[in-house]
Amino acid sequence: MTKLSIETTGIRLRRNFFTRDVLEVAPDLLGKVLVRQFEDGSISRWLITETEAYKGEEDKACHANKGRTPRTEVMYREGGYIYVYLIYGMYWLLNIVTGETDHPQAALIRGLSKITGPGRVGKQLKLNKSFYEEDLITSNRLWLEAPIVNLRKYTSSVRIGINYAPDEWRLKRWRFSLNMSENK
DNA sequence: TCACGGATTCGT
DNA sequence: CGAATCCGTGAT
C-alpha cells in the first residue's frame, strides 16, 4: 500500500492531452499530478503549480527560435515528450513538449507543490540528459496523472528570465500560476 | 576549434 | 550583486 499525500485518480494523461496548443496545455497542466519513480523504486507525486508557455520559431524567447538544432529537435515532435536542458551549467529544466508535429513548442515546469523554481524542480526530480525525449505516455520513471479534484483558478503574468527578448515577446503573459487560496 | 552566455540559485 | 559550472550555438 502506498500512502499518497497527493490525491490522484491514478489515471495517466494520454497523448491527446499534450497535442493541443501550448497556450491551452500550459495552464491546463496546473493542478495535474506529476509522478516520478526513482531508481530505487520509490514513487513521489507533486501537483504542478507554475508553468510557462514557449511557442514556435517566432517566439524570440523560445529555444526553437533558432530553428531545428540537436537541442530543439524534440520540440518538433508531437506533444507528450520531455525536453530537458542544462542551464547555467548546473540545473536541468523540465519542459513538456506540446502541440502537433512540426509545431515546436513546450511548457516549462517552473514549480510544483513544495518546490518553487524550475532549477529546484529538476534537482528534486533528479533529472539529467537521459530524460531528453522521454515519452510521458509510456515512461516508467516520469509521467502525469489526472487529479481527483481539478484546481482551475490561476493567474497569468510575464515570463521570467527572458529580458533579452524584444517587448513583443517579453511582455506576453504566458506564465501561469495556480492560485491556491482561491482553489480551496 | 573557440568564445559566449543562458527559461537559475545561493551566498555575501 | 556576483559566483558557480557546462555545453549548445554560431562564428572563425
Could you give a short description of this structure?
The protein has 184 residues and is mainly beta.
Task: Explain how this protein is built.
Helices cover 12% and strands 33% of the residues. The chain has 184 residues and is mainly β. The protein has one domain (8-182): 3-methyladenine DNA Glycosylase, Chain A (Roll). Strands 1, 2, 3, 4, 5, 6, 7, 8, 9 and 10 form a 10-stranded antiparallel beta sheet that branches. The longest helix has 7 residues, at 22-28. The chain is globular, with a radius of gyration of 15 Å. The mean pLDDT is 95. The protein binds a DNA duplex (12 and 12 nucleotides) through residues 52, 54, 61-63, 66, 69-71, 85-91, 93, 95, 108, 110, 117-120, 123, 159-162, 164.
| Residue runs with pLDDT of under 50 for 5 or more positions | none
- CATH uppermost class: Alpha Beta
The 3D shape can be described as globular
Helicity range: 10-25%
* Topology-level CATH name: 3-methyladenine DNA Glycosylase, Chain A
Average pLDDT confidence is: 95
What is the H-and-E element order? EHHEEEEEEHEEHE
